[in-house]
Amino acid sequence: MSHLSLQPWQVSDQDFPLQGSPTQQLQFILNYAVLAPSGHNTQPWKFTIQQETIELWADLDRALSYVDPEHRELIISCGAALLNLRLALHHFGYQGDIQMLPNSDQPNLLAQIRLGSWNQETAEEKSLFEAISQRHTTRRPFEAWDIPTTVLQWLQVIAVEEGAWLHLVQGQKAKSHLLNLVNLADRLQMADPEIRKELSAWMHSGSNPRHDGLPAYALGVPPRFDFLTVVLSWLTRYFNLGNQIAKQNEQLLQSASAIAVLGTHGDTPIDWLNVGQALQKILLRAQSLGIVASFFNAPIQMPEVRSQLQSSLNREGYPQVLLWLGYCTSTQPTPRRSSHEVQF
Predict the structure, then answer these.
(1) 176 with 292: CB under 8 angstroms?
(2) Nearest Cα to 100, choosing from 339, 343, 342, 269?
(3) Does the pLDDT of residue 207 top 80, yes or no?
(4) Cα–Cα distance between 304 and 286 in angstroms, integer?
(5) Matching InterPro entries, A to Z (predicted)?
(6) Does domain 3-131 sit in CATH 3.40.109.10?
């Protein structure tokens, strides 16, 4: 693993330029934005800092054209980065003046962020901020421990606060139906050579100079076998591994302490930005309580399966993210580009 690829995770608030210019302070705050999760670890965001303003842009060069043709998941990922920016602003004493989708003529400009007036960080915000550099997605099986009902209800409240909803999949019948949808989506995706090619293109060794993508250990392979990433990439591209992936995901699902669908009332870019912020806030709150998460979004990425999932929830709205939650040992973080690498 390249030291440089992990450096962004080692950011410390002690290094904040308290006496620096607004531009320098905004530059430092970007260090927290880049730690947000993203599909295939594409990190599909780019930023500019000008006139004491951060602009958050969708980086379409990092779009997943086959599994995310409308850029829904791309914008959700950018929403997660925006939540990190919000928390960092509050942590360093600023209210934050944020405008989402500020210019209809520039749809890829997702938000403008200014320091704003003085702000006193709350205890809740502080604990969320501290979890930013600790949160990692896992592909490991979970321990057989239950998540307290009060915690799950807390996560549901957080979703509502950010303009989303969190539906808990409960009962053996509902879980079995969801497992069938995951299996179906896995097989449909892996039967598509273009989707396999797209996925394999983002499978990189942890030491790759791009500082992005999925190393083998992010797919459940022990970190010492990171060199096998190139082999996994080749196998993914040229062979239909749908049955194997479905079986692996079935085992992970069965070990989960909780399964949840995060959704929205609408299905537009502003909804995707909002649900991205809800997602990251839920992940950070969970992390602060020792709970980790894994994503299984294939059923939502495939339109024909997403409609079945939507019907099975028996509620209004649109499923956006499928979450597995539970307890397990800590995992190694995936690579991240530095704050300088994401600016243009």
Answers:
(1) no
(2) 269
(3) no
(4) 31
(5) Nitroreductase-like, Nitroreductase/BluB
(6) yes
β-partners of residue 324 are 259, 294
As a CATH number, domain 149-326 is 3.40.109.10
Q: Please report, for residues 153, 263, 272, 314, the alpha-carbon distance to residue 160 in angstroms, rounded to integers and kept in the order given.
A: 11, 10, 14, 18
Angle at 280 between CA 278 and CA 284, to 5 degrees: 120
Distance (Å, whole) CA 326 – CA 141: 9
Q: In this structure, are residues 33 and 85 in contact, taking their beta carbons and an 8 Å threshold?
A: yes
Residues 321 and 301: their CA atoms lie apart, in Å, by 9
Residue-range domain boundaries for the chain: 3-131, 149-326
DSSP output for 25-36: HHHHHHHHHTTS
- Looking at the chain, the whole-number percentage of residues with pLDDT higher than 70 is 98
Fold matches, 3-131 and 149-326: yes
Query: What tens digit of pLDDT does each residue of 86-118 get?
Result: 999 999 999 999 999 999 999 999 999 999 999
Question: What are the pLDDT digits (tens) for 249-300?
Answer: 888 888 999 999 999 999 999 999 999 999 999 999 999 999 999 998 999 9
